[in-house]
Amino acid sequence: MATLKEKLIAPVVEEEATVQNNKITAVSFGLVGMSCAICVLGKSLADELALVDVLEGKLKGEMINPQHGSLFLQTLKIVADKDCSVTASSKIVVVTAGVRQQEGERHLNLVQKNVNVFKFIIPQMVNVIGSGCNLDSARFHCLMAENLGIHPSSCHVWILGEHSDSNVAVWIGVNVAGFSLQELNPEIGTDNASENWKEVHKIVVESAHEVIKLKGYTNWAIGLSVTGLIESVMNNLPRIHPMSTMVKGMYGIENEVFLSLLCILNARGLTSIINQKLKDNEVAQFKKSTDTLWDIQKDLKDL
What we know:
By secondary structure, the chain is an alpha/beta fold. The chain is built from nine helices and twelve strands. Its EC number is 1.1.1.27.
């Protein structure tokens, strides 16, 4: 007896056994994972979204909730499971699992705790890249643009190094419409500047702490930042992002440390590094950032 579907729909070609898809997975569906997933759905970057978390009941609820809004989305399929096998065939897996930063707590205090989490998750994934200072740079864009009265996309500013307190604002590269702000104000970003632009970088460094103090966690800006990276990969846009990569050999650094440099990201992943010119004081700050992370990294257990 024919089913309702068979009565309703008459196929004219056989269904393919496998269909090329644009599947994206979010591992650990907490506040950050949820933000990443919603931003991906909003940008229609995936035709299948998979969610992974150990909290099975909550995970099912987070799956059903956006499914009920699928009329308004371009994503055909949303699935969820506590087993990482659900990530199979994913083009991108976004890992947001980790220990939440508390008010007043610095990122470096979480390193060992997060290593203990990642060592159970990352081996099940492949081609892992780090979002690095992509969000820090977005914050820098936001604040500089706000001060100049323009849209963030109309100014070019970068944060390199550690995604934490020792990151480096590359003032030599700050420009608007091709005009170097350092040419207009050679002292920009220094203690000697007549206008205190250095305060902008200080606010960038403290941004996460401020948000955590106000609402207890950061999530939406992270989701938007990660989605920007996903967009570069899924749409094969060779865009430049400040991302975590091996810095040994750069700027005279000898230790095997992963920090943010300007990188080209496309469908093949992180493919190239931009040879960013830095001033002597910026090189010194970058090395300090490297030393800060190395002092933590060299003592980590089970790395």
